[in-house]
Write a structure and sequence with these properties.
This protein is α/β, with parallel strands linked by helices and 722 residues long. It has 23 helices and 11 strands. The strands form 2 sheets. The protein has a 9-stranded mixed β-sheet with strand order 1-2-4-3-5-6-7-8-9, with helices on both faces. The chain has a two-stranded antiparallel sheet with strand order 10-11.
Amino acid sequence: METSTSTLENQEDEVSHVEATLSKQRPTLPGKQPTRAADKTGKAPPSRGRLRLSANWWRSLQCVGMSLHFLAYPRPPNPNFVRSIPSTLSSRKGNFALHFYVPDGYKKTARWPVVVNFHGGGFTIGNGTDDARFARFVLEKAHAVFVSVDYRLAPEYPFPTAVEDGADALLYIIKKAEELRVDPNRIATSGFSAGGNIAITAPLRLSQLRKTQTVPSHHVVALATWYPITDYTLTREERRLTAIRPEECLSPALTDLFDASYLYPPELNLADPYLSPSKASDELLKEGIPDKVLFYTCEWDMLLHEGEELSQRLKGPPISKDVRYTMIRGVAHGWDKGPNPMKTPRKSEMFPPTQNSRGGSRILNMSSDSKDPEAVGDSQAVEPSRPQQPTAPVIHGKPKYKLAGLPRLDYNIMHYKVKLFIVTGLLLFEGSIAPVLLYYSLTYGTNLREGIIFAIITSLFGFISGFEFALRSWRLILKEDTYRPLGEKRWRFDFTHQSLGLIYTIMTAILIGGSIPHPPLVRLLAIPMPLFFIHIGLQGIIMGWMAERRAPALVRVSSVARGEPTPPFVLPLIEDVVAVDGDGKKAYRQRLMERWRVSRRFRAMIKGLNWFWGVGSLAFGIGLMVVVWTTPEVIAYGVGWGAPLIFIAIWTFVTVVWTRRGLHFEKLGWTSELDAREAKLGSQDPDLSLREGSFRDEQVVGATDPAIQARENAEKPVDTGV
């Protein structure tokens, strides 16, 4: 990098000032640094089975958080295509996925530069789509293909699986460069947190691999790492002691899980260079690290000091890499994963957060020309920027949207407010209010024995819901195809009917069976509603996970045929309830599936709601079940039937706010994209182009109704080959 002498002197002064300030904040740490994984704690590590359970729990919560993150504007893009590749370097054989995001004009250029990215999550949670916002930044600023590696996670796949998967991903891209239309001599690695570690160690592993086997010609020319963990010889307690804001650091529950999962077996050498690159030799770093390095740390992060020290080591002799180090002030670890549509945006919610995005994009763009007058110095501490929300013209206090090409749902629930109020009120009365009211009034106000009391309550259960169930059954089996799912035959009920029919049967059997003994089994009679929420929650989580993985549906899910990508549980629930119970009929099913197919923002909103209800219902159901079996019977029965009313009220209120906000931002985003395409395309049809862009975003559930298929065939967009 060509830099004037005065600029270098100023930068050296600034670096010295930052180092002096931070050195005052570092306490002297007594004791010997651990050299083995077993030395990290003085107690026996948890079992691998327990770690797997904990990891899966946190993965579920992380999916909910990332669903909210994906709802915040601007929405992140979806991968253009995904490749599943086999592991070749790891002793733990298996496959993992590469998510490809490609820039405009992908097929017009023979060879593109490529950025290979690794997501964060302590090597234990996360997936390949977590850094989709960064993918958009790379596509727009660096004009490169972005490949996100969905490497295998611990505790199922401990060290060094993630590093070897990273090296395998690089090898695959190098070997398939011509097919993937990328330039193997213009490769950059990038990563966040644990992924930042892989962005450093995967090139090290690849450089050592070249000494033992033939590797096709390639050149990893740049590396970008964000708040990486680089020195596992430090304990978490030592890191927290050096943190400026310890309360902003990740909780011990998470960090202990991460370390116990990844650092296995206990005899593992923590100074291994592929685990702790800070402990690698100068020779290995000089040989394996690319010449250009973009290094980010966070002011409130426990990993700040080890990241700063490694960046300075890479910059200085004898390694002497071109390092651009940036500490972002006022943010904690994972600042870029902050956007949440349910709260006011924070400063750290948009990538890029700094004033040096041009400098960063120049490194990622792998340009040999470093004479950038707007590039920042080699060591900076900068403030994050605040994102701008999309806007639309406002007329008479309401925004004026441009919605050409966006399928309208054409259903206003307020047109059915009387029916909605009556039916919902009766169902809540039957399922929550009546059992509690009758139980306590008959128990304390009469001399009836418990068997008679529960016989009365049981006889009333299913009176309203049974009538509603019979009505929707009749509508679904009518000869006229008015209410049935798209492409479904007569005598086959929709997905919601089958799902609720199963749990209603179980609940009724429990009520009857629990009322027969003398005295009745009060606790057993209190669990139907907790079971209902567990049933709903499990379906939401399982189908949500399958939807995220684009797993094919094992059975027909209302209008989604078997073998098509599985939709989130909330989608068929909305479709079936509105179409049958809300009298939206088959036309609503058609419009809803078109909206799901065309709008990625609508898909993101539905997925977020699915996780909100799935995880919430499961957690509430399990908690309620625990209360029922651990409290006195007289309290357990009231809680088991009464608490669901409170849960439903809160979750429904949040859902209404969430949906209104989500639809608003969907329309704003559609309007802004339409304006941009109109400006870009001029006289071309922006409606058609917008539909084409939506088709490229993601392969989603398509309607199987013949009318829908005919329309899709007539409007089939031009194949982009991506």
